[in-house]
Amino acid sequence: MKALVLKRYGKPDQVTFADIPRPQPGPDELLVQVHAAGLNPVDNMIAKGLFKPVLPLQLPATMGSDLSGVVVEVGSRVTRFKPGDAVFASIFDRSGTGALAELARVPESAAAPKPANLDFVQAASIPMVGLTSWQALKERAQLKPGQKVFIPAGAGGIGTFAIQLAKYFGAKVGTTTSTGNIDLVRSLGADEVVDYKTHQFEDVLRNYDAVLGTVRGDAIEKSLRILKAGSTVVSLVGPPDAAFARARGMNFLMVLVFGLLSRKIIRLASRRGVAYSFLFVRPDGSRLAEIGGLLEAESIRPVIDKVFPFEQAKDALSYLGQGRAKGKVVVQMR
Ligand SMILES: NC(=O)c1ccc[n+]([C@@H]2O[C@H](COP(=O)([O-])OP(=O)(O)OC[C@H]3O[C@@H](n4cnc5c(N)ncnc54)[C@H](OP(=O)(O)O)[C@@H]3O)[C@@H](O)[C@H]2O)c1
Q1: What is the whole-number distance in angstroms between the Cα of residue 304 and the centre of ligand 1?
Q2: Confidence label for 55 from pLDDT (cuts 50, 70 and 90)
Q3: Does 279 sit in the ligand 1 pocket, CB within 6 Å?
Q4: Do 148 and 273 fall within a single domain?
C-alpha cells in the first residue's frame, strides 16, 4: 500500500512516498482504510527529529497523526468496533504506522465513532486539536464558567478549536491574531481580540484566570503579566517540565534536564502565584467520542483552511510549516 514515510530524521528529502506491506492489526487494534488525515505541527517536528527523546520511532515510519476512515478489520480483543464502522482518531503516540497511508493501525483505545454530521475531511481535522484543547482547558486549567482564558494564535488549528471549547465551558476568551483573521476569531466567539501586528497583548488584557501557551518565544513569560494570582498556564510549546518527563517514564537524567529547562518559567510564575505546567496531548478515544458529541450538537464547528490530495501530502506539510494556516490543513485519500 502507498504511504508517506520518514526514512531518516532531519531532512525534507527523507520524507517520501513508498509502497509498504499492508499493516496487520494487533489484538487490540483496528485496521482502518484512511479517507483523510489531519496535519499538525508535530508531524513536521517529528520529521526534523525534535521529538526523538520523547517519541522514539523505528525508522522508516509512516507519518501522520490524525485520521478518519472506515474499519476494515479488527483484532481479536476488539469489542467496540466492527468492519464498516466510520471512525476518527489521533494515533501519534506510538511507533508503527501513521495516518498518511492508505491503511492504518489504530488502537481501539484511541478510536471514536466519526460524528455523523461531519464528512471524513472535517472529522480528520479534529482529533489532536480537540483532545489537546480539552486536556488543557478542562483537565489542567479546570476552567469554570465566567473565568477568563487567554488563547493566543486564535486563527490556528488549536486556536480555532480551543476558543469554541472554552466558550462551550462558559468562559470568556481573549486571543491574538493578525489583522486579516480578526473576523474569523470573533466568529468563533472570542471576546477580546488583540491584533498582534499593532498591539502587545500584555498591554491590553487584564485579570485572566488561565493561559493556553500556543506561541513560542517569550509569549509565555509575557502572558504572566495578564494573570491573576491563583491562575494557571498550560503550555503546549514548552519548556517541558520534570513532571512531564516523569509521566513519560523518562530516566533520571531527562527528568533533571527538563526540570532545568523549565526552572526559570516556573520560578517567574510562582512569584506571581501562577501554576505553570507543560502538556503533551495523549490519545483518548473515550474523550474523543465526547468531543464528537459536541460537533454533532453543533456546539463546535470544524475550521478547515486547505485540503490537499494524497499525492500532495508533502506540499501540505510544507504549507502547514509556514505557520499561517487559518484552522486546519487536511490531506484527502479517498
Ligand atoms: N504539546 C502538545 O501536545 C501540542 C499539541 C498540539 C499543538 N501543539 C503546539 O501548539 C502550537 C500551535 O499549534 P497549531 O496547530 O495551532 O499551529 P498552526 O495551526 O500551525 O498555527 C498557525 C496559526 O498561528 C498564528 N500565529 C503565528 N504566529 C503568531 C503570533 N506571534 N501571535 C498570534 N498568532 C500567531 C497564525 O495566525 P496569523 O496568520 O494571524 O499570524 C496561524 O493562524 C504549535 O507549536 C504546536 O506544535 C502542542
Answers
A1: 14
A2: confident
A3: yes
A4: yes
